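To: structure subgroup
Subject: Chain for Friday's discussion

All,

I'm putting the inputs and outputs inline so they're searchable in the archive.
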Amino acid sequence: QVQLVESGGGLVQAGGSLRLSCAASGRTFSSYFVGWFRQAPGKEREFVMGITRNGDRLYYADSVKGRFTISRDNAKSTVYLQMDSLKPEDTAVYYCAAATSPTTTVSGINYWGQGTQVTVSS
Protein backbone atom coordinates (compact mmCIF):
# COMPACT_ATOMS: atom_id res chain seq x y z
CA GLN A 1 0.00 0.00 0.00
CA VAL A 2 1.20 3.48 -0.96
CA GLN A 3 -0.32 6.80 0.05
CA LEU A 4 0.29 9.86 -2.14
CA VAL A 5 -0.44 13.48 -1.24
CA GLU A 6 -0.10 16.33 -3.74
CA SER A 7 0.52 19.97 -2.91
CA GLY A 8 1.55 23.18 -4.64
CA GLY A 9 -1.45 23.78 -6.86
CA GLY A 10 -3.01 27.19 -7.21
CA LEU A 11 -3.75 30.09 -9.52
CA VAL A 12 -1.07 31.44 -11.84
CA GLN A 13 -1.00 33.75 -14.84
CA ALA A 14 -0.23 32.47 -18.33
CA GLY A 15 3.52 32.31 -18.87
CA GLY A 16 4.16 31.78 -15.19
CA SER A 17 5.53 28.84 -13.24
CA LEU A 18 4.37 26.46 -10.55
CA ARG A 19 5.94 23.49 -8.79
CA LEU A 20 3.84 20.58 -7.61
CA SER A 21 5.00 18.12 -4.97
CA CYS A 22 3.93 14.55 -4.31
CA ALA A 23 4.78 13.16 -0.89
CA ALA A 24 4.60 9.39 -0.47
CA SER A 25 4.27 7.10 2.51
CA GLY A 26 3.73 3.40 3.08
CA ARG A 27 5.82 1.03 0.97
CA THR A 28 9.34 1.92 -0.08
CA PHE A 29 8.99 4.93 -2.36
CA SER A 30 12.05 4.17 -4.45
CA SER A 31 10.46 0.89 -5.62
CA TYR A 32 7.83 2.67 -7.74
CA PHE A 33 7.52 4.41 -11.05
CA VAL A 34 5.80 7.74 -10.38
CA GLY A 35 3.87 9.86 -12.83
CA TRP A 36 1.60 12.85 -13.06
CA PHE A 37 -1.80 12.83 -14.76
CA ARG A 38 -4.28 15.64 -15.19
CA GLN A 39 -7.98 15.97 -15.82
CA ALA A 40 -9.75 19.06 -17.08
CA PRO A 41 -13.54 19.52 -16.82
CA GLY A 42 -15.33 17.38 -19.38
CA LYS A 43 -12.15 15.63 -20.50
CA GLU A 44 -10.52 12.26 -19.90
CA ARG A 45 -7.71 11.93 -17.41
CA GLU A 46 -4.45 12.12 -19.36
CA PHE A 47 -0.81 11.34 -18.77
CA VAL A 48 1.56 14.29 -18.28
CA MET A 49 5.00 13.08 -17.15
CA GLY A 50 6.57 10.12 -15.43
CA ILE A 51 9.88 9.03 -13.95
CA THR A 52 11.37 5.60 -13.27
CA ARG A 53 12.24 4.51 -9.76
CA ASN A 54 15.91 5.41 -10.07
CA GLY A 55 15.30 8.48 -12.22
CA ASP A 56 17.18 7.16 -15.24
CA ARG A 57 14.29 7.49 -17.71
CA LEU A 58 11.66 10.16 -18.18
CA TYR A 59 8.30 9.94 -19.95
CA TYR A 60 6.32 12.90 -21.19
CA ALA A 61 3.33 13.98 -23.23
CA ASP A 62 4.03 16.01 -26.36
CA SER A 63 1.87 18.84 -25.02
CA VAL A 64 4.27 19.57 -22.15
CA LYS A 65 7.64 18.74 -23.70
CA GLY A 66 10.10 21.56 -23.14
CA ARG A 67 7.88 23.24 -20.56
CA PHE A 68 7.52 20.75 -17.70
CA THR A 69 10.18 18.84 -15.78
CA ILE A 70 9.76 15.89 -13.45
CA SER A 71 12.24 14.92 -10.73
CA ARG A 72 12.35 12.81 -7.60
CA ASP A 73 14.12 12.80 -4.27
CA ASN A 74 13.91 9.27 -2.92
CA ALA A 75 15.54 10.29 0.36
CA LYS A 76 12.54 12.56 0.97
CA SER A 77 10.02 10.21 -0.68
CA THR A 78 8.92 13.09 -2.89
CA VAL A 79 8.37 13.65 -6.61
CA TYR A 80 8.18 17.11 -8.14
CA LEU A 81 6.60 18.53 -11.26
CA GLN A 82 8.10 21.84 -12.30
CA MET A 83 5.76 23.62 -14.68
CA ASP A 84 7.04 26.59 -16.68
CA SER A 85 5.53 28.66 -19.49
CA LEU A 86 2.08 27.70 -18.32
CA LYS A 87 -0.86 28.04 -20.68
CA PRO A 88 -4.59 28.30 -19.97
CA GLU A 89 -5.03 24.84 -21.50
CA ASP A 90 -2.86 23.44 -18.69
CA THR A 91 -5.72 24.15 -16.29
CA ALA A 92 -6.79 20.89 -14.66
CA VAL A 93 -6.71 18.81 -11.52
CA TYR A 94 -3.27 17.22 -11.34
CA TYR A 95 -2.88 13.76 -9.84
CA CYS A 96 0.22 12.03 -8.59
CA ALA A 97 0.26 8.31 -9.40
CA ALA A 98 2.46 5.31 -8.65
CA ALA A 99 2.95 1.98 -10.38
CA THR A 100 5.15 -1.07 -10.08
CA SER A 101 6.22 -0.68 -13.73
CA PRO A 102 6.50 2.34 -16.05
CA THR A 103 3.21 3.28 -17.69
CA THR A 104 1.54 6.20 -19.44
CA THR A 105 -2.02 4.91 -19.10
CA VAL A 106 -4.62 5.26 -16.36
CA SER A 107 -5.20 1.51 -16.32
CA GLY A 108 -1.55 0.89 -15.52
CA ILE A 109 -1.59 2.89 -12.29
CA ASN A 110 -1.74 1.13 -8.93
CA TYR A 111 -2.08 4.11 -6.56
CA TRP A 112 -3.51 7.62 -6.90
CA GLY A 113 -3.21 10.83 -4.93
CA GLN A 114 -6.24 13.02 -4.20
CA GLY A 115 -5.35 15.66 -6.78
CA THR A 116 -4.47 19.34 -6.66
CA GLN A 117 -6.08 22.10 -8.71
CA VAL A 118 -3.97 24.13 -11.13
CA THR A 119 -5.63 27.13 -12.76
CA VAL A 120 -3.86 29.22 -15.40
CA SER A 121 -5.44 32.56 -16.21
CA SER A 122 -4.98 34.44 -19.48
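Points worth raising on Friday:
The mean pLDDT is 96.
Residues 66 and 89 are 16 Å apart (CA to CA).

D.
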